[in-house]
Specification:
The chain is of the alpha+beta class. The chain is about 35% helix and about 30% strand. The strands form five sheets. Strands 3-18-5-13-14 form a five-stranded antiparallel β-sheet, with no helix packed on it. Strands 4-17-16-15 form a four-stranded antiparallel β-sheet, with no helix packed on it. Strand 15 and strand 16 form a beta hairpin. It starts with 7 loop residues before the first strand and ends with a helix.
């Protein structure tokens, strides 16, 4: 029930080692047990309820299953058994399957076996999913698949009330299939043909069951997730583009970079304002220095004038 039991071990450096001899022995001794380690498995208490698949939202565990309505195929059956001598008159059956219409002639003298064989041959040639069979001497025609999406119609050119013909009759006969319906863990499942799926938002979400029973029944399905499924889920949790670990880390780093860019913008704006203030102060200082220099030049001119005036005066 573990990788170690079949010779697969995880090393301290993160690598795996495989004891091929032990693995081969495990496969030869109990292949199903080895399969359960790797694959998603479902076991049922009823032969009419089979595990088909699960999704990453399905919770491992046991689920009660109650089938209220089994799936049905679209079915039309002749009104009575055909005489052992076969039909007495050629009979033309006209079928409608979806958008397709076609006719089949069953010749006089054909027995139930020959009529079934002829119909199945034409169904195959026409590419329609219908099949004919002998139902205790009566002609039975059914869709191959189950569910409400399956339907067909048929009408004959001969009376259906006598056992010397096929029993279909001159009145158009039609039928539709039925989807399976039932509960999984007490919640109404979604039926599609013979498939019953667990309800969204429950532990059975994503669980698909194949219901082959032809009558209502109950049972229990137990599902377990193998190593492969757990590994895929782990990888998904890391690589998911919406909320995976890589996306979360990337978003965090992007937000941090954006914050730093905002701080840098604010700092540049602040430095710009300080630079402008310093330039204004420097300009004012230059103006004041220029004024002082002009005053100095004026004083020097006056002093020179006085010196010259005193130098030329006579006593």
């Amino acid at each position: 029930n573990s990788l170690g039991a079949i010779g697969i071990k995880l090393q301290s450096d993160g690598t795996l080692t495989v004891d091929t001899g032990k693995l081969d022995d495990a496969i030869n001794d109990n292949f199903d047990a080895v399969k359960r380690i790797f694959a998603d498995i479902g076991t049922s208490t009823s032969t009419g309820i089979a595990f088909k698949s699960l999704s990453d939202t399905t919770q491992p565990g046991s689920f009660g299953v109650q089938i209220t309505t089994p799936a049905e195929r679209a079915t039309i059956t002749g009104a009575q058994a055909i005489s052992g001598a076969g039909i007495t008159t050629d009979e033309n059956l006209t079928f409608t399957v979806g958008e397709k219409n076609f006719s089949v002639i069953i010749t006089a003298g054909s027995t139930i076996a020959q009529a079934v064989s002829r119909l199945n041959e034409i169904f195959n040639d026409e590419g329609v999913l219908l099949e004919a069979s002998d139902d205790s001497g009566s002609l039975k025609i059914q869709t191959v698949d189950y569910g409400s999406a399956e339907s067909f119609s048929v009408v004959s050119d001969q009376d259906g009330a006598v056992n010397t013909q096929l029993g279909i009759g001159t009145t158009l006969l039609s039928d539709n299939g039925v989807n399976v319906s039932g509960l999984i863990n007490g919640q109404v499942g979604t039926g599609l043909g013979q498939l019953l799926s667990g309800a969204d938002g429950t532990g059975a979400e994503g669980l698909e069951l194949l219901i082959t029973s032809q009558s209502p029944l109950s049972g229990t399905i137990t599902v377990s997730r193998g190593v492969t499924g757990r590994l895929i889920n782990s990888i998904d949790s890391i690589t998911d583009t919406s909320n995976g670990l890589i996306k979360t880390k990337s978003d965090s780093l992007t937000n941090r970079i954006d914050d730093l860019d905002d701080q840098l913008d604010r700092l540049n704006t602040r430095l710009g304002r300080q630079e402008a203030a310093l330039r204004r102060q420097f300009t004012g200082l230059e103006v004041r220095l220029s004024g002082i220099q002009n005053q100095g030049n004026f004083l020097l001119t006056q002093l020179a004038s006085l010196t010259q005036s005193f130098g030329t005066r006579r006593f």
